[in-house]
Amino acid sequence: MIRINSVRTRKSIWALLLISGLPLLLGSLQSCAPARNIVYFQGDSLRYSGDSIRQSYTPTIQPNDLLSIVVGSLSPESDAIFNVPNQFMTSAMKYGSAGSGAQSLGYLVDSDGNIEMPLVGKIHIQDLKSQIAADTVRRRLLTVLREPTVTLRSLNFKVSVLGEVNQPAIYVIPDEKITLPELLSLAGDLTIYGRRDNITVIREENGHREYAKVDLTTREVFDSPYYYLHKNDLVYIEPVAARTTFTDRRLQLLPLYISLISAASLVFIRLAR
């Protein structure tokens, strides 16, 4: 059994223990965050409460939109003429995937808001909702097809998310409707360093760019005009201050400095015996 007789040696040992415990202390301080900054949709503590849905979002067709238009009728041979642009859909356009793959074919809306289809020519569908646009196309096809049906869907309804999420990417949404929490779910949720109370949504529509802040920690997010995302919205997740500190170069080298000091302290203790 080792007996420590020197007061100086005892002080050195206590200093060594303190220095060795610094990395654990710093790590715990950086990883800890108040629960109120992490929990989503905070509100009253009732077991059940309800709100009416006050707003939604239905996109309209705009120039440069890429559309899938599937035509059906009593003549499959004639249908094939209209459905050729839909035969080369790529996996990049499936729900929830990034749109960085090969470009899918489809009907492109020109700068005047028109699409051009075989046999019937140009059809103006700008500012129409998908269902109304499909009915507009169906009426034009009545001149060349018997009892036509039309299914119309956007191929480039996409939203982007970057910053402190687990899977930052561009996501293509075939059903043309997605909420902010749904997008974050597709992106694998926020990392522990993501700020849930200060999410930035950047929106460009009608030649105007908007910057908005959304707080996911309160139920007020459900009433926000940015709860339902619009086509081409960009969502940015800001890092917390601890993330910036953790990536600081000096702090990254702190364990090395502590190891050197610890080694020097051990040498001093041995020499002081």
What does this structure look like?
This protein has seven helices and ten strands. With 273 residues, the chain is of the alpha+beta class. Helix 1 (7-31) runs antiparallel to helix 7 (254-272). The longest helix is centred in the N-terminal third of the chain and has 25 residues, at 7-31.
Features:
single chain; 273 residues; alpha+beta; five-stranded mixed beta sheet; three-stranded antiparallel beta sheet; 7 helices; elongated
Report the portion of residues in β strands: 15-25%
- Cα gyration radius (Å): 30 Å
Structural category = alpha+beta
User: What general form does the structure show?
Assistant: elongated
Largest sheet composition = 5 strands, mixed
User: In order across it, which strands form the biggest sheet?
Assistant: 7-6-10-8-9
**What is the helix tally?**
7
- The low-confidence parts are 89-95
Helicity range of the residues?
Answer: 25-40%
Intertermini distance: 14 Å
Q: SSE order in H/E notation?
A: HEHEEEHEEEHEEEHHH
Task: Compute the average pLDDT.
Answer: 79
Number of strands: 10
Summarize it.
The protein is α+β, with helices and mostly antiparallel strands and 273 residues long.
Would you spell out the secondary-structure blueprint of this structure?
Elements: H1 7-31, E1 66-72, H2 76-83, E2 107-108, E3 114-117, E4 121-124, H3 130-141, E5 149-154, E6 158-163, E7 169-172, H4 180-186, E8 199-205, E9 208-214, E10 234-237, H5 241-246, H6 249-252, H7 254-272
